[in-house]
Amino acid sequence: MLHMLLFLLLSFTSCDSVSYDDLEIPTGWSSDKSPNARKPRTCSPASEMICESEYMSCQLYAGPANNEDTACTCAGQFYGICLREAGCAAKRYGDCVDVHMDNDCADMSVCGSNCVGNGNALDLSDARILPVNNFAANYLRLSTCDLGLDEGSYQNFELVRMQRCREPGPGVGPDQAYHICPYWIPPSTFTAVAIPNNSTMLRVEYANLVPVPSLSFSSARQANATLASGEDYVANVLRSPAPLEYYGTSSLWPSSVDVAWSETNYCSDHQDCPGSHCNQRHIPHKCAPKVKKHYSGASSTGQHFKEHSFTDEKR
What we know:
Number of helices: 6
Number of domains: 1
Shape: globular
Largest sheet: 5 strands, antiparallel
């Protein structure tokens, strides 16, 4: 029903508008959500089981038993293609690293996040591999842009900076929109991302995955958080801290993307902090830690459980 309504809506937009498929918004996203309330691709258990079966068949029949080349080929197909299409690549990231290390495979980028096209391809010959070290406690949403140098700034002020793309949406052409990566980097994860070789900008945004109650279609549209069948959370992309931006050319990029360590996750709302609350006195806002007073003494009762950690004032 959601896809039918979206189709009808887009059918009556102006000829300048484009569909969400044209903008390559990842499968599984509800496109009537605001940009900061969409979810990354999620794992399909049924598709994951099919991948497991195909992986076993590959190991048994694709080449000699106990052979490293066979193991690496099958692992590349399993982790690099099948699990990506199933939405399970991030979930099995640790397994991918272990298998590729055990067999001394030549290409460890198979285990990284693919931001080229729809994110399912294994051929990265036209891609750039950037190490990503997420020391933070938040998820990271990555987007690429290929608009190149801002000629106006360069001609008028001799200022070298790259143009910024626009958030995907109706009326925004695919050549002007950010390409949003379908796989997000989990907290405290050290991996790599493949981006298109012609990218000139990489945007890194902080996010939290937050649970939401089941909503009817009409009430969800009013709340700007429509859920497709089976979805039980959305991704809250934060506006503070500000997104990190990395710039490059066809020949020069930063050697790695390093996101600074934080002791707790940044937040914008209390729902970002299960069991605690978002301390909005801190700039940028952070989830408040638990302390002894929450578990003993006069302030340990349920109604005081989400009081500020280091003051007697109520939240």
